[in-house]
Specification:
Structural class: alpha+beta
Helix content: 40-55%
Strand content: 15-25%
Largest sheet: 4 strands, mixed
Number of helices: 9
Strand order of the largest sheet: 3-4-5-6
Order of helices and strands: HHEEHHHEEEHHHEH
Distance between the termini: 48 Å
Length: 193
């Protein structure tokens, strides 16, 4: 057994770039995301990031260290799912403008929505829809797939009514490869031709 810090340090050096970003994002989320209040503790995240940076600095010639240096700076614990992490990485690689993650929109009825990706200046937001949302009993909380879809549509409509922003959705079906994801992003106007 190794500590989370050591495990993440090893992973960000030795696995694919996508897996490294997913792992570091997940570690930061575990450390810095307050699920009860839905807020991200930047200081806790930075302390963990600094500890991994120290390991990287102490092993400057180690295998995969360049990738580790990138990942330690790129990682963001606001990413909730692996698909969000990979989406963010591929959007960055493709030159898509950086999105704000888990952007909070206060709704008129007193509720709020956290948007996976948001570009306020563009009047756009996007959601990564993984299959688990429609199959995982914990996430579904006793709802049917149809109720989950209805709740999702109502939430989207509430955000659109409140902000006037366009919503796009994607999942792994649009992300079989980075080229397919690029084609999808072009089709919705987030990536230039």
């Amino acid at each position: 057994m190794t500590s989370l810090e050591r495990t993440v340090y090893d992973m960000v050096r030795l696995v694919s770039l996508e897996a490294a970003v997913v792992a570091f994002d997940a570690a930061l989320r575990q450390i810095a995301w307050d699920a009860e209040r839905n807020i991200y503790d930047e200081e806790r995240a930075e302390r963990f990031r600094a500890a991994v940076r120290e390991r990287i600095a102490a092993h400057s010639g180690a295998r995969g260290i360049r990738q580790a240096r990138f990942v330690v700076e790129f990682a963001d614990g606001r990413a909730q799912l692996p698909g969000e992490s990979i989406s963010r990485l591929w959007m960055w690689q493709l030159g898509v403008q950086s999105a704000q993650l888990q952007y909070r929109v206060d709704l008129p009825d007193g509720r709020y929505a956290l948007l996976d990706f948001c570009w306020p200046r563009l009047g756009r937001w996007a959601e990564f829809d993984g299959r688990f949302k429609y199959t995982d009993s914990t996430v579904m909380s006793g709802r049917t797939k149809e109720q989950v879809l209805l709740d999702q549509a109502q939430r989207q409509q509430a955000v659109e009514d409140t902000m006037g922003w366009r919503c796009d959705r994607w999942g792994f079906a649009q992300m079989a490869t980075v080229d397919e994801f690029a084609a999808y992003l072009r089709s919705i106007g987030l990536l230039g031709r």
